[in-house]
Write a structure and sequence with these properties.
Blueprint lengths: L21 H11 L2 H13 L4 E2 H8 L3 H13 L3 E6 L2 E6 L1 H11 L11 H8 L6
Helix pairs in contact: 2-3, 2-4
Length: 131
Amino acid sequence: MTDRASPGRFVCSFDGNRNMEMKDVVAALSALAQASRLAIFRTLVGAGPGGLPAGRVSELTGIAPSSLSFHLKELSHAGLAASRQDGRFVIYTARYETMEALLAYLTAHCCSGEACLPGLAAAAVAPPQMA
C-alpha cells in the first residue's frame, strides 16, 4: 500500500474497475475494528476536508497524544487518514476516496441488484449516533 514515489504516503490499490483490492479492504476494516481508531476516523470524517490538528483530535476523542500518534499511524497505513504540515501543526484528514471505495466494496452486491429494503435506505441516510 505504500506509494513508492512518495515515501511514507499510503494509497489503496484498485483493480481495473477502480474497485479496492481485498488486501486493502482487510487492512481498512482491521484498522477500524478498534474503538479508538474508529472514534478518530469518525472525528476526522466529521471535520471535513480541512481536517484537524492532532491536538484537537486528541481533545475531541479524549485520547492521550502519545496513544493518538500510534492510532493515526495505523489509520494512515490503512489508507484511511492523511497528514500535512501547516506551520507548526500537523493536520490530519480522512481519506474520503478510501472510505468511499470501502463502502462501495461492501455494498457492491447489496440486495442482489434490487432496490434496498426501506429500512436499509433510511439507515444509510440517517447519521449514526455516537456512543
